[in-house]
Amino acid sequence: MRKETSTNYLNERDLTETCGMFYTLSLIGGRWKVSILAALLDNQNLRYSQIKNRLPGITERMLIKQLKELQTDGIISRHDYKETPPRVEYRVTPLGKSLEPILEEMHEWGKKNKVK
User: Fold this and answer.
1) Residue 110: exposed, middle, or buried by beta-carbon count in 10 A (0-12, 13-18, 19+)?
2) What is the pLDDT of residues 75-86, one digit of tens each?
3) Distance between CA atoms of 90 and 111, rounded to whole angstroms?
4) For the CA atoms of the chain, what is the radius of gyration?
5) For residue 32, which of 46, 13, 52, 16 has the smallest C-alpha distance?
């Protein structure tokens, strides 16, 4: 956690507030968020274990952290069925769904321009 008076924090906050591209990247940036979002876009909804199985190498701590951040940002929603045993499902919100064409375009650009 950075101090709210640090230059780094202030610069990031300014960019997030004034630049749409930076704001978008702040929501989906990082190693796992795009993969989580892609898994959920490919399926209607997924349980925690199903997401974890689709992302080999992600730790439980990191998956929980990324799911919480995506949920806080309104990209995904979490539905707790209040059953025994517990059942929780995640799904993409309309806001998250609106990112799909952007992610597809990034995918195509990456395939086309990847250094081989």
Assistant:
1) exposed
2) 999 999 888 888
3) 28
4) 16
5) 52
**Domain 31-110 top-level CATH class:** mainly alpha
Alpha helices, DSSP H only, in 43-99? 48-54, 60-72, 94-97
Count of alpha carbons within 13 angstroms of residue 65, beta-carbon side? 8
pLDDT band at 2 (very low <50, low <70, confident <90, very high): low
Helix (H, G, I), strand (E, B) or coil at 83: coil
> Could you tell me if 76 and 69 are in contact, meaning their C-beta atoms sit under 8 angstroms apart?
no
Nearest to 92 by CA among 61, 113, 67: 67
Name the pTM for this structure. 0.83
For the chain, give every domain's residue range.
1-29, 31-110
Question: pLDDT tens for residues 38-54?
Answer: 999 998 899 999 999 99
